[in-house]
Each structure stands twice: as structure tokens, then as C-alpha cells.
Recover the amino acids of this structure.
């Protein structure tokens, strides 16, 4: 289910229940910390990686930071904090994550971020938990799919035709972004099972229309 143009979309003020005003303020301050490329990537992943109800790309594409806050609070008020952290990870700005944690947890978060900066490991990566496949790995893979991305999505990744229709509409004429959007749909659907190893095991099947070297990006360790 998408939020469409017919839905009322407040433009001048932050939309929020009284208990959500602090979150709205924090979220808008966070978005101000993003440069334009990061902000556009944030909106891109908000469209493709957030759970239902999805926000229509026609509303997000040209939305300002304040309008983006409005849309997030309307559609995802119950999980705004969790969703924001996921999006920050996707755009490689987890350094801003402490803005959405209770004060008692901030010292631990800052300590973890400092350790990562000194080369002692990535921030917020629990020990022993397999890392999700990254956006850079998905983009590298998407660039190898060509026009076969629809077949791969439906036949091998278990996506529905209507999901791919929406992805194609959002990125009409750009095969790489269409394939990338399809892979993001798979990642969202798989949740914590969306690891590089899992994706590699699926796409290395004999009948998948991909060259073996296209999957090399899934075998390369991500830099922390």
C-alpha cells in the first residue's frame, strides 16, 4: 500500500502527535546534517527499504527535509526510531545514530563509534551476527543483471510481479536502478536473513542468468 497524492500532506508545519514532537525535532535536525546527495539517498531507501505502507516516490522525490519528516511520521510513527537507524546504516551515516537513542545509551554508542574509527571494528555491529548484504554489494550486483533483473527477482528471489512493476515505474529507463530497487525489495523481505552469503547461495544456482564473476562482489569482505 502506497501513500498517494490524494492523501493530505501537511506542508508548513511538522506533523506529529504530542508525544512525537521531540522525535520530529530530532529527525529534522538529523536530516539537516546530511548533504544533498546523502539526503536524496535517504529518501531513496525510505521509499524502497521501509515496511508497508510505502511512501510514493512522487511524494518523496522533491520533498524537502521538513516534508520528509511529515511523511515519515504519518506512515511510520510506530517505528520511526528503528527505521531511521536502518536508513542511516544504508547511507553510511551511523555516526548520527546517537541522536535517536536514550541518554543512558549514548555513552556506549559514542564509545562504539570511537572504537570503529580507531580500527577496532564497525559501529553497532553485534559480535557473531552475520552482516546484511550492503548497498554497495547490491549495486555492484545490479550492474551485472541487465534486462534479466525481472526474471531473477520473480523466479529466484521470490518477489511478486506487482513489486517489480512499482520498482520499474520508480526508475523508468534505468536498468541498473531498477535491478538495485528489486534487490532492495528482496533485502527488506528477508530481514536479518538478507546476508551476502545467503544471496550468493541463491544466485549461484545453475539456471540463474548471471555470469559467475557477477557474484564475486558478494564474496568480498566489506570494509568496516
Amino acid at each position: 500500500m502506497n501513500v498517494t497524492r490524494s492523501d493530505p500532506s501537511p506542508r508548513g508545519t511538522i506533523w506529529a502527535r504530542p508525544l512525537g514532537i521531540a522525535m520530529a525535532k530530532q529527525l529534522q535536525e538529523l536530516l539537516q546534517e546530511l548533504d544533498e546527495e546523502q539526503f536524496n539517498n535517504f529518501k531513496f531507501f525510505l521509499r524502497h527499504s521501509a515496511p508497508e505502507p510505502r511512501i510514493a516516490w512522487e511524494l518523496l522525490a522533491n520533498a524537502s527535509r521538513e516534508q520528509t519528516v511529515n511523511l515519515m511520521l504519518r506512515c511510520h510513527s510506530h517505528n520511526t526510531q528503528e527505521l531511521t537507524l536502518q536508513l542511516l546504516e544504508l547511507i553510511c551515516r551511523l555516526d548520527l545514530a546517537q541522536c535517536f537513542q536514550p541518554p543512558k545509551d549514548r555513552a556506549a554508542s559514542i564509545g562504539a563509534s570511537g572504537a570503529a574509527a580507531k580500527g577496532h571494528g564497525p559501529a553497532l555491529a553485534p559480535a557473531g551476527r552475520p552482516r546484511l548484504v550492503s548497498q554497495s554489494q547490491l549495486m555492484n550486483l545490479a550492474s551485472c543483471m541487465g534486462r534479466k533483473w525481472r526474471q531473477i527477482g520473480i523466479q529466484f528471489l521470490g518477489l511478486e510481479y506487482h513489486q517489480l512493476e512499482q520498482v520499474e515505474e520508480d526508475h523508468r529507463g534505468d536498468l541498473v536502478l531498477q535491478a538495485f530497487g528489486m534487490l532492495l525489495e528482496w533485502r527488506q523481505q528477508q530481514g536479518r536473513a538478507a546476508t551476502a552469503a545467503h544471496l550468493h547461495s541463491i544466485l549461484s544456482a545453475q539456471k540463474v542468468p548471471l555470469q559467475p564473476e557477477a557474484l564475486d562482489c558478494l564474496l568480498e569482505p566489506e570494509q568496516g
Notes: Residues 1-19, 102-128 have pLDDT under 50 and may be disordered. The first strand starts at residue 2 and ends at 3. Residues 175-190 form the longest helix (16 residues).
